[in-house]
Amino acid sequence: RKNVKRLISAFEQFKEKTQSTHKLLIAGGMLWKTSDFEQTYLQSSWKEDIVFLGRVSNEALRELTATAFASCFVTLFEGFGLPIVEAMKSGTPVITSNRSSMPEIGGEAVLIVNPENVADIDKAMKRLIEDDSMRNELIGKGLERSKIFDWHITAKLVFQFITTD
């Protein structure tokens, strides 16, 4: 469901078209690792620019997110999409799926892609490096949108909901 195989394929197309020096950092447990995925990675001409970090601490994840050029969260299914909110709060532009809750979470503050379309993901990556004003606009919109995802506000709303008859 994390769609890492297509993400790597899109990154490969992105690198071939742009010759960018950007790297693809993938954090988290490799529960999605399959022979199909491994074949895609091993055949990549850009595997030296693909870095598997494994599980990282919360602090390291915050630093990675805040210093990333972009966050690419093109999962096929997600319950909520907390990485989108974390990236927006960090001032990092987001590319995400048109599936599940992702469009609702990101609103107009993210680039929405079809996660099954490698060319769509690649195109969004390319847009972010070619259009600084659009990237900066996404950063601003993301910072603003992330304010609605606040634990204090959520707790108040839940409390109001459970205490009203």
Write structural notes for this entry:
This protein is mostly helical. It is built from eight helices and five strands. The strands form two sheets. The chain has a three-stranded parallel β-sheet, with helices on both faces. Strands 1-2 form a two-stranded parallel ribbon. β4, α5 (102-106) and β5 form a beta-alpha-beta unit. The longest helix has 15 residues, at 4-18. The protein is globular and about 60 Å long. The mean pLDDT is 91.
Helix-strand topology string: HEHEHEHEHEHHH
Mean pLDDT: 91
Give the percentage of residues in beta strands.
5-15%
Total beta strands: 5
Helix content: 40-55%
CA-based gyration radius: 17 Å
List unreliable stretches of 5+ residues. Answer: none
Q: Please report the number of helical segments.
A: 8
Strand order of the largest sheet: 3-4-5
Structural class: mainly alpha
Largest sheet: 3 strands, parallel
- The rough form would be described as globular
Kindly report how far apart the N and C termini lie: 39 Å
Write a short abstract of this structure.
This protein has 165 residues and is mostly helical. The protein contains 8 helices and 5 strands, in the order H-E-H-E-H-E-H-E-H-E-H-H-H. It has helices spanning 4-18, 35-42, 58-67, 82-89, 102-106, 118-130, 132-146, 151-163, and strands at 24-27, 50-54, 71-73, 94-97, 111-113.
Please describe the structure with a list of short key phrases separated by commas or semicolons.
single chain; 165 residues; mainly alpha; 3-stranded parallel β-sheet
Write the layout of secondary structure elements.
Layout: H1 4-18, E1 24-27, H2 35-42, E2 50-54, H3 58-67, E3 71-73, H4 82-89, E4 94-97, H5 102-106, E5 111-113, H6 118-130, H7 132-146, H8 151-163
Helix pairs in contact: 1-2, 1-6, 4-7
